[in-house]
Amino acid sequence: MGGDFAPLEIVKGSVDAARKYHCEIVLVGDEPQIRDVLKSTPDWEKLGITIHHTSEVIEMGEHPAEAVRKKKDASVVVATQLVKDGVCDAVLSAGSTGAAVTAAQFILKRIKGIGRPTIATPMPTPQGVTLLLDSGANVDTKPEHLVQSGIMGSIYAQYVFGIKAPKVGLLNIGEEETKGNEQAKATYELLKTVHTINFCGNAEGRDVPTGAFDVVICDGFVGNIVLKFAEGLAMTILGLLKDAIGHGGLLAKAGALFLMPTLRKLGKRLDVTEYGGAPLLGVNGVCIISHGSSKAKSICSAIGVADDYVEGKVLEHIHDTIVEEEQLAQAEEEAAKAAKKAAEAESAQD
Amino acid sequence: MGGDFAPLEIVKGSVDAARKYHCEIVLVGDEPQIRDVLKSTPDWEKLGITIHHTSEVIEMGEHPAEAVRKKKDASVVVATQLVKDGVCDAVLSAGSTGAAVTAAQFILKRIKGIGRPTIATPMPTPQGVTLLLDSGANVDTKPEHLVQSGIMGSIYAQYVFGIKAPKVGLLNIGEEETKGNEQAKATYELLKTVHTINFCGNAEGRDVPTGAFDVVICDGFVGNIVLKFAEGLAMTILGLLKDAIGHGGLLAKAGALFLMPTLRKLGKRLDVTEYGGAPLLGVNGVCIISHGSSKAKSICSAIGVADDYVEGKVLEHIHDTIVEEEQLAQAEEEAAKAAKKAAEAESAQD
Question: Which residue, A13, A271, A301, B205, has fewest beta-carbon neighbours within 10 Å?
Fold first, then answer.
């Protein structure tokens, strides 16, 4: 029921996904409205689609924590509970991001050892995609939580995008280790000691669109601003281009017409809706956040993302890696202690 | 001597500016190299151009504070000193931003009452330009210093861009007052009490390119990342477009050719080199930071910016406004105290 075009586009995208990915889909929301949209798909039940009726909706302006607590029968709350209960493998929402994140935190809980869940947004690049995280779940994030974002993002890039040893960068204002604010400098120090990721140093703003890194870590304050800036810039340039062609006379119009197939191909390459959804990493369950403006195509892609997320066993890998990282750090600490003791014993003998 | 194309493009841009703005220009740097470039402009002395020879250059990798302290005869140090001594009205550098900022802070000093100088970068929008500040001079900035950025940016937009009551926004992750990190929330509270600016609330990332505000305030960490992200995105899209047209067959090439005049006009509208320079606001002198990749056109525009900055008496306005703001705050405090006293006296009488 969430998003600018719900339930119409959400239902349409789900039908497409059921056909494309052969996955069972539970549509959680107002049954009469959903049935109305499904009228145009008489075989919906055969496709593996079911409806789970709910009576409430969390609106965009509501306070997420309050709304999730009060509205027990809100679609996002019930859908998340279905994952908790093992009825579903994943939950997807195009509604209030805050509500989806809060529901996931309250109901699914955090993965043991993870301090903060983060939203990982795939940003299109010439080579494919860069995962930017956190893109808005937490602000004033502690360095150790940013490090965990890096570990989770790296696992996601590996098992969902199929990238071996993903290049992980820390979003900062310069390449040098000494650059940045206190948060970035402390995070850099910690990242150097992590065993399970391929940390490649600081990423500057320009490295996000150029795709110099596979995973870029940042605080949710910075990530959200960058993400919305990119959206605004793309919209603005497109608007100006249309405007310029509209006022550009016959020659410009003919040129635009001739160029259209090329531009369309390029647009498809840069189209965020091809990726459709951003995973909320760090909770005990698969949760995908879609953009409020999502249409059927985005929703269908996002369900594909959820499918890859489940099939890739990302949750298990995150859990195992966090445990492994802790064990490695402990082993190192013990080895250092033993070495110190041995050195002391030796100097006592002298 | 600073910048990727110094001294060639810097000198060429200065010659253009001397012709265009009829201002006297002192070229500070290695005299033989500068004279070599000026060979193609036999009338350079008549244009009001002089050379001030210096023997040192601060390289991009050097630590700014150390370099400025050690290299007393570095071009950026000497040029800044010429402003301090009243020989010049403004200093312009396309070299190391850190070195230019440090030289300005050491030599020109901060305007009384200003805690941190900030770099104000004009970002192109469909309507004109949005001033983004701080775009990289300071990180971990205190709320009161962000407020001062807002005041200085507003004055600059008013007297250099000619905007009446510029709309000032605080870069944040949501429109609501309660959104954001601790720094943003504290800054919002302070901005509400400022008398001398037209504070219009939070600006989201998308509001920068769409031009919803005239002045957007942020920490230098966020500003620098946004700025470099925009550069990277513009570069990437342009590269992909060229590539797509190159591989797009005859039709695409013809289309591109037909569209070229329209695209060129649009490009000119969005071209940052039209603005050429970002003022360092908050120091006791006019200091303009140009991009390291600046060519003659950018340098010429930047000299125009310096000219507007001086003619607009921005420094005096900043000084006066800071004093006015302090006086207004003091008066308010005293009025509140007096009201409290009166109320106490009244209740004692009862």
Answer: A271
